[in-house]
């Protein structure tokens, strides 16, 4: 591969780099004045060492990061962090790769970031995932406690993912189920949005701490709101307009996908705001419902994927807020009419009583 080819394909322009930091700042909910601090941290000549461990997974999380463009993975690897160990993209293999892992955690003991991709099998002593004759459990127990912080990228590393789906034959679990005493943050998704990962990394490098999380260990800046609350199809849900099946008129019109299985009402993520692939799309925007992949155990709890999520109330008993408003209006009119009728009846009664008294006096 020629030097010119490498530079043309992997070098990120200054403008693109700044755009990436600005995007991360926006995702983090930081003001514009904080962008220079993120840029300063990202451009620091002291690149924090990172060890990236792969366990039970499909490498989809790394793939999604490789497709990121703000900045691209080359810039992320070479300019922001020092990626000292990553089995998928590193040139070393075999004993050289294992030596690189050993040297990194020894030299930077307590100072490096550990990124974990994939679940960890625990059944039968963890024999269902072994690297260099060590189980994933042993590697995590060796590397994790020596890291400054651990980022569990993807739903597999966060909560076990599909490997932990019932009946979970390998006893797969997430990092937080095994590792104690080291700060851990979960960036779930199948795959997670690269901007959520980038924002977590930049937040740590800028403020020297992990971002605030919810009760499931997810950064609030990325998982603080339900997809349903900021989905572009939400007005259709509120007004009772739904796709009843894929390909029908409602689906072609871009109506709400709840009735064809969208799990947006029960899923927390920034997908509608950040989107994917640098072209402004995400599953719901192209006609497929959310499958709830950022939630623990979504393979079991969100299924069937094309069935309706229970316990979701559609306004107006399914007719939408317009029907709800119409129903409320009719009730108000009914109550008003009843009040007028009662008032009139009382008036008539009083007149009858008064007339009777007058007759008796005459």
TrEMBL record:
Assembly and oligomerization: Heterodimer of a large and a small subunit.
Domain Cytochrome-c3 hydrogenase C-terminal: 223-306
GO CC terms of this entry: [Ni-Fe] hydrogenase complex; ferredoxin hydrogenase complex; membrane; periplasmic space
Name of the protein in its database record: Oxidoreductase
Cofactor(s) listed in the protein's UniProt record: [3Fe-4S] cluster; [4Fe-4S] cluster
Keyword ATP-binding: no
UniProt cross-references to InterPro entries, sorted A to Z: Cytochrome-c3_hydrogenase_C, NADH_UbQ_OxRdtase-like_20kDa, NiFe-Hase_small_C_sf, NiFe_Hase_small_N_sf, NiFe_hydrogenase_ssu, TAT_signal, TAT_signal_bac_arc
GO biological process: anaerobic respiration
One Gene Ontology term of the molecular function aspect: metal ion binding
Binding site for [4Fe-4S] cluster 2: 228, 231, 256, 262
This protein's UniProt keywords: 3Fe-4S, 4Fe-4S, Iron, Iron-sulfur, Metal-binding, Oxidoreductase, Periplasm, Signal
Binding site for [4Fe-4S] cluster 1: 58, 61, 156, 190
Subcellular location: Periplasm
Record-annotated NADH:ubiquinone oxidoreductase-like 20kDa subunit domain positions: 58-203
Entry-linked PANTHER family: HYDROGENASE-2 SMALL CHAIN (PTHR30013:SF7), NIFE / NIFESE HYDROGENASE SMALL SUBUNIT FAMILY MEMBER (PTHR30013)
Family: Belongs to the [NiFe]/[NiFeSe] hydrogenase small subunit family.
Signal peptide per UniProt: none
Gene of this entry: hybS
Annotated source species: Desulfolithobacter dissulfuricans
Chain residues that bind [3Fe-4S] cluster: 271, 290, 293
């Amino acid at each position: 591969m020629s030097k010119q080819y490498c530079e043309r394909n992997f070098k990120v322009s200054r403008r693109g780099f700044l755009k990436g930091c600005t995007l991360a700042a926006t995702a983090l909910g930081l003001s514009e004045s904080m962008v220079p601090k993120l840029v300063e941290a990202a451009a620091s000549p002291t690149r924090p060492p990172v060890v990236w461990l792969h366990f039970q997974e499909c490498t989809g999380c790394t793939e999604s990061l490789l497709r990121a463009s703000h900045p691209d993975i080359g810039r992320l690897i070479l300019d922001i962090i020092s990626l000292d160990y990553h089995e998928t993209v590193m040139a070393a293999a075999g004993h050289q790769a294992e030596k690189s892992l050993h040297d990194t955690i020894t030299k930077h003991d307590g100072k490096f970031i550990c990124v974990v991709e994939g679940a960890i099998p625990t059944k039968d002593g963890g024999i269902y995932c072994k690297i260099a004759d060590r189980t994933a459990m042993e590697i995590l127990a060796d590397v994790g406690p020596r890291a400054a912080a651990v980022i569990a990228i993807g739903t597999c590393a966060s909560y076990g993912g599909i490997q932990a789906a019932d009946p979970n034959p390998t006893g797969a679990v997430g990092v937080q189920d095994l590792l104690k005493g080291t700060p851990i943050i979960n960036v779930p998704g199948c795959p997670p949005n690269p901007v959520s990962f980038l924002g977590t990394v930049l937040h740590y490098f800028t403020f020297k701490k992990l971002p605030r999380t919810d009760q499931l260990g997810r950064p609030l800046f990325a998982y603080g709101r339900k997809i349903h609350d900021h989905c572009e199809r939400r007005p259709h849900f509120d007004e009772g307009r739904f796709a009843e099946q894929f390909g029908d008129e409602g689906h072609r019109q871009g109506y709400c996908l709840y009735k064809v299985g969208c799990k947006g009402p029960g899923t927390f993520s920034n997908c509608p705001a950040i989107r994917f692939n640098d072209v402004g799309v995400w599953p719901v925007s192209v006609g497929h419902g959310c499958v709830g992949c950022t939630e623990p155990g979504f393979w079991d709890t969100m299924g069937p994927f094309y069935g309706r999520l229970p316990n979701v109330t559609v306004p107006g008993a399914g007719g939408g807020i317009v029907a709800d408003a119409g129903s409320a209006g009719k009730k108000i009119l009914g109550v008003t009419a009843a009040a007028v009728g009662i008032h009139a009846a009382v008036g008539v009664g009083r007149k009858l009583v008064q007339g009777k008294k007058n007759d008796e006096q005459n």
